[in-house]
Amino acid sequence: MANTRMIKMVSGAALAALMLAGCGDETTNVTGLQTVANLQEAGKCVTGDMVLNLEDSQVYICGADNKWGVLKGEPGAAGAGCTGVSLGDTAVVISCGEAVVDTIFNGAKGPQGIQGARGESGQSCSGQVIDGVGIEITCGGVVVDTLGNGNDQGGGASSVSSSSSSSSSSSSSATANLVVDAGADMICHNNTVCAFSGTAGGANIGKYLWDYEGDGVFDDSSATNSFSHTYADTSATAAYTAKFCARDDGGNEVCDTTHVSVANRAPSLKGFVIGKLIATNTYGLFVDSLRFVDADDNLQPIFYWDLDDDGIFETVRQSADTVVLATNDGALRHIAVYCKDIWGLSSDTVHAMYGRGPQLLDTRDSKTYATIGIGTQMWMAENLDYEYKVNDSTYGNWCYEDGVQYCAQYGRLYSWAAAMDSLATGCGDGRTCPASLGRARGVCPEGWHLPSVAEWRALLAAVGGAETAGTMLKSTTGWINNGNGEDIVGFSALPSGYRDTTGSFSFAGRYTYFWSSSKYSLPNAPLMYLSYNDAHVSVGGSWPKNYGLSVRCVKD
Question: Which of 94, 139, 286, 467 shows the greatest Cβ crowding within 10 Å of its Cβ?
Answer without folding.
Answer: 286
